[in-house]
Each structure stands twice: as C-alpha cells, then as structure tokens.
UniProtKB/TrEMBL annotation:
Gene Ontology molecular functions: trans-2-enoyl-CoA reductase (NADPH) activity
GO BP, sorted A to Z: fatty acid biosynthetic process; phytol metabolic process
Organism: Homarus americanus
Intracellular or extracellular location(s): Peroxisome
Name of the protein in its database record: Peroxisomal trans-2-enoyl-CoA reductase
Function per UniProt: Participates in chain elongation of fatty acids. Catalyzes the reduction of trans-2-enoyl-CoAs of varying chain lengths from 6:1 to 16:1, having maximum activity with 10:1 CoA. Has no 2,4-dienoyl-CoA reductase activity.
Length: 262
C-alpha cells in the first residue's frame, strides 16, 4: 500500500524512462496507484506492451513509447508527443540506464561511449528537452536515478564516471532552473536492488544474494523501496529539497567492508 496521500499526485503526468522493468516498473506502479497518468519509455516495444497490459489493461492512464535515450530526435518526439496527448509533464524520472562489467583495461572506446551516452548524455538530453518544451514555462520535478558512486565502482568505472556526472549535473540544474519552479534530485540505490531484469544482466539471483554480507540490513533492497524514495522527492513533501542525493542502500555506504568472499 502506498505511503503517500493520493490527492497530492492526482492527475499529475509522469514520464518514466526504463519504466517497463525493475525499479522503473515499481515507480510506475506507485505513481499509477496514486492517481498519476504515466508514460513509460524505453527501447524494447514488447516490454512496454507487456507492462501496460499487466498494470493498466483497461485505461489509457499508462502509455508506452519506444525511445532510445541515446538518440536526440527520439527524445524530442517522446516529449512532444507526450505533451500533445496529455497536455503537460509534471514529473520526469530518468531511470533508464545500465552498463556491463569490465575491468577498465578491457573497456574499448566504443563501450565507454555507449555507457556514457546512455547514462550521462541520455539524462542530459531528457532534462534539456523536457525543460525546453514544458518545464521552463510551467515548472516541474525531475528525479535522476544513478548508482551510489561515493566509493567508486570497480568493474563499472565507465558507469560510475557517468553517474557521478549525472549527480553533479543535477546540482547545477537545481540552481539554474530553480527560478523557473523546477526541482531536481538524485536517487542513488546501493548496488543490489533485486529485480529479474537486473539480475539477468549480472548472472542471476545468486550474484545479488552474495552481496548480503556487505549490507548492514543483511538483505537486498527492493524495487518498491527505491520507488518510495522517488515518490517522496516528487511529492510536495519535498518542495524545498533540490540538488540533493538520496542513497537507498540499507546503510551499505557506511559499512567498513564490502568483502563479498565472507
Ligand atoms: C558483481 C555483480 C555486480 C552487480 C551490480 C548490480 C548493480 C547495478 C545494477 C544495474 O545497473 S541493473 C540495470 C542493468 N541493465 C542494464 O545494464 C541494461 C542496459 N545495458 C546496456 O544496454 C548495455 O550495457 C550498454 C552498453 C549500456 C548498451 O549496450 P548496447 O548493446 O546497446 O551498446 P552497443 O552500442 O551495441 O555496444 C557498444 C559497445 O559496448 C561494449 N559492450 C556492450 N555490452 C558489452 C558487454 N556485455 N561486455 C563487453 N562489452 C560490451 C562493446 O564494446 C560494444 O561494441 P562491440 O564490441 O559490440 O562492437
Ligand atoms: N538493480 C540495482 O541493483 C541497481 C540499479 N540501478 C539503476 O537503476 C536503473 C534501473 O535499473 P533496474 O530496474 O535495476 O534494471 P533494468 O535492467 O530492469 O532497467 C533498466 C531499464 O533501462 C532501460 N534502458 C536501458 N538503456 C536504455 C536506452 N538507451 N534508452 C531507453 N531506455 C533504456 C531498459 O529498457 P530497454 O532495454 O527496453 O531499453 C530497462 O527498462 C538503472 O539506471 C540502473 O543502472 C542503480 C543501482 C542499483
């Protein structure tokens, strides 16, 4: 059950990238339950269709739109078509993203560029376009999902660099756009929020289970727990919070050792 008051969200329009799977799907579910209209956007049409069918089969409060956030023209169309269909964009959640595991020595330039384009440039383009087409005149709230990069991320250095860029971009925009009524914050999940799609990218549930020892709470995080943090930051309850980074990691950042061999 939602911990938020539905009235605060009723009839708001939210755009969630990567909203068909994992954390994004949990955010979508929470926003729908609060009365929002939601547009989910990502590359694979079949995932979008399946999620729309599962969560909202009999209404058009949930729409899926194919968009690769590495493509500026596709982002432009995503924003303009959302505005022409739904009339406004109150909330943007930049959740779509990812990377692959590799030591830095083996990362090729093409792979580095792919990860930076997806996570940093994609977020920059989404923010810039939604601001230019709507939020500059009308205000709004943006939440960017990153990884917690505060101690670096060995084997994911490309993504860590890109996500740290998103974190800092968020702070700059929070200042630049404050006078236009736009708030932006970052949510930084610790490494191990279990979802089937996330696990599939990293060798299955076992890889996530092994991380428990490094988490003071001794359990994995859930996608719903990330969704709650996102909805708090979107809500009027956070109306004087901007440029902040909220970690959702069960205290893992403060744990002295992430030695996963124990
Ligand atoms: C020890 C376990 C740690 C678990 C940590 C858990 C914490 C984090 C969890 C999450 O982030 S969950 C989200 C996971 N989801 C994803 O990561 C999915 C999205 N990922 C991607 O789409 C890709 O990783 C991408 C690189 C961002 C985009 O890939 P795409 O295939 O679209 O790019 P291309 O342009 O085709 O490839 C460019 C280039 O990139 C290199 N590369 C891509 N994938 C890999 C790979 N798996 N291994 C090595 N290299 C890869 C490669 O150089 C590609 O060029 P070519 O060699 O194919 O010419
Ligand atoms: N699970 C975890 O432990 C953690 C996850 N995160 C981050 O949270 C976010 C959600 O991850 P999670 O739900 O776990 O994993 P998922 O793999 O389920 O989510 C990634 C989503 O991003 C979308 N996506 C990827 N590349 C693009 C692109 N170029 N354009 C548009 N959409 C794209 C994918 O859809 P499609 O492939 O159809 O395009 C997918 O829906 C990601 O940014 C992830 O890195 C951060 C910390 C920890």
């Amino acid at each position: 059950m939602s911990v938020f008051r539905p009235l605060l969200f009723k009839n708001k329009v939210a755009l969630v990238t990567g909203g068909a799977t994992g954390i994004g799907k949990a955010i979508t579910e929470e926003l729908l339950s609060l009365g929002c209209k939601v547009v989910i956007a990502s590359r694979k049409e079949e995932r979008l269709k399946a999620t729309v069918q599962e969560l909202c089969p009999n209404s058009n409060r949930l729409r899926g739109k194919v968009c690769n956030i590495r493509k500026e023209d596709q982002i432009n169309t995503l924003i303009s078509s959302t505005l022409s269909e739904l009339g406004k964009i109150d909330y943007l959640v930049n959740n779509g993203g990812g990377q692959y595991l590799s030591p830095v020595a083996d990362i090729r330039l093409k792979g580095w560029d792919a990860v930076v384009e997806t996570n940093l440039t994609g977020t920059f383009l989404m923010c810039k376009e939604v601001y230019g087409q709507w939020m500059r005149e009308n205000g709004g709230v943006i939440v960017n999902i990153i990884l917690d990069t505060s101690r670096g991320i060995p084997m994911m250095a490309h993504s860590a660099a890109a996500r740290a860029g998103v974190d800092n971009l968020t702070k700059s925009l929070a200042v630049e756009w404050a006078a236009n009524g736009v708030r932006l914050n970052t949510v930084a999940p610790g490494g191990f929020i279990y979802s089937p799609t996330a696990a599939a990218n990293y060798g299955g549930r076992d890889v996530f289970e092994k991380a428990r020892v490094g988490i003071p709470a001794k359990r994995l995080g859930t996608t719903q727990e990330v969704a709650s943090a996102v909805c708090f930051l979107l809500s009027p309850g956070a109306s004087f919070i901007s440029g902040e980074t909220l970690k959702v990691d069960g205290g893992a950042n403060f744990f002295p050792s992430l030695d996963r061999s124990r």
